Structure to design on (69 residues):
């Protein structure tokens, strides 16, 4: 993957240093570039009226200024 997507409230959190110390993760493009996006799990997985907002926020996190409003 180019980016690792993680929930920031799903049990014990691994720091970026701990995450990227794993050789399996470090060998991916995301690991080599140290790219990780952390989002609230309830927000990310709670389908409902906020789903469009979640999609926008995730796209902005992944693509930055390339994400269209």
């Amino acid at each position: 993957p180019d980016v690792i997507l993680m929930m920031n409230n799903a049990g014990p959190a691994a720091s970026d240093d701990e995450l990227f110390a794993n050789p399996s993760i470090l060998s991916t493009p995301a690991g080599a570039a140290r790219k990780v996006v952390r989002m609230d799990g309830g927000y990310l997985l709670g389908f409902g009226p906020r789903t469009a907002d979640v999609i926008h926020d995730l796209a902005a996190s992944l693509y930055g200024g390339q994400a269209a409003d």
The mean pLDDT is 89.
